[in-house]
Design goal:
The chain contains 9 helices and 15 strands. By secondary structure, it is α+β, with helices and mostly antiparallel strands. The chain has 3 domains: 158 residues; 107 residues, Orthogonal Bundle (Helix Hairpins), CATH 1.10.287; 151 residues, Histidine kinase-like ATPase, C-terminal domain (Heat Shock Protein 90), CATH 3.30.565. Helix 5 runs parallel beside helix 8 and helix 7 runs antiparallel to helix 8.
Length: 463
Amino acid sequence: MRRAYRLDVRLAVVVTVISVLTLIGAGTILSLEFTRGQFAIEERGLSTQVEEWAGLLRRSPGGTIVFDRPAEPSSEIDPPYTGLLSGTRPVYGYTVTDATGTVVDRSDANAPAGRPGPADPEPVLSSGPTLDGTGPVLIAELYVPEFGVWLRLARSRSDVTALTNTFFAQSLEELGWAALAMLVVMVITAVSIVRFSLMGLRRVAAQAERITFDNLGHQRLAGSSAPAEVQPLIAAVNHALDSIRAGAVAQRDFSIHAAHELRTPLADLKLRLEGLASAPDRDAAMQDIDAMARLIEQLLQIARLDGSSDFSLQSLHLGETVAQVLQEAAPRLVSAGWSLEADGLDLPVRIIGDPTLIALILRNLLDNVRKHTPPGNTVRVSISSDGTLLFTDTGPGLPRGFPRSSFARFVRGNDDTRSGSGLGLSICETAMRRMGGTFSREPAASGATFGMAFNLDRSSESG
């Protein structure tokens, strides 16, 4: 079975991945925009620079063209960019070219190669290699008509890339922790929002955990606090519960009607057999009829318990309720050869229960004693002040491996179908569950011991 995932964990992972990708994408776009903008700045700077430096051209006494380049030490560049651009080399390179393409004057580094373009009095921008074979460089050329030459000014393109990288390295160093903190805050915020949004769904889950077969008739999921996306699921679950409830009611009604219909023919058959002369076959048939009658009676009890509509819980004196049941059942048990002892019936223990269900439990337990223990054994019923009732017999006890709780229906202690139907203990457990208590098999050195834990009536104690 595939393990269910947690929505808050998955959302945290998704938000983290999306945030990281967003930061990377934003950094990439910003880098591209910065580089493009930096190139535009460099091109404008070159255009201005070539116009300014065109005034530095002069003709020497010998008639040659001379360019008086101003000093441009790289140490004047502010850190941390010093050395990252052109190092000890000049930032700008130049050539002075005549109409034949002859280089009249040039710089030692970054001197642009290539023939000049048209004689344009406005700066013309281009890109190309240097005379030294390095590059590429950004080139701004300007025709100077009074000298009939072209001044070509160049700037290394790698300087722009280095400047961009340096800018982002410094930005990452200064803003990286802020970006990481922002990412953590985004993840925590997203997870908190999901947890808060799922509170209504958790309430619905808690409601679902409280729905059992016992309260199926009146418990449903209330989805008013759940998100709208879950409302169809809640409605579908409630519809399914309604269908289960309808099926349970139909099954219960069928069991009740079938049991009632079988009572009359069994009673008639028993009367006819009693009128016959005693014989082994007749006695065996009578035993079968008694077993069938008891099974039918227990099916009726199970059906009524499953319906859980004929019983009302109230405050009871446990000792008095048990004494009344034993007073009715003791004569038949004692006359058949069993002994009955009771202890704690006079204790002032008040519980929340139903007298009909308590009588049903004790009668099934006493019936089991008559079915499964030989005459001469003793039955002891004791009540404790904590609302616990113990039912003990001195018979052979239950088989090894018989469950201590959660007694399944139609599970017998032996293979003799005439000895019982396997419903008695299940009826006892279901009846105790209807009263909010528990029914279990208790450890015993010999015989069988069953414990019933009732809920105490605390209101009577405070009063």
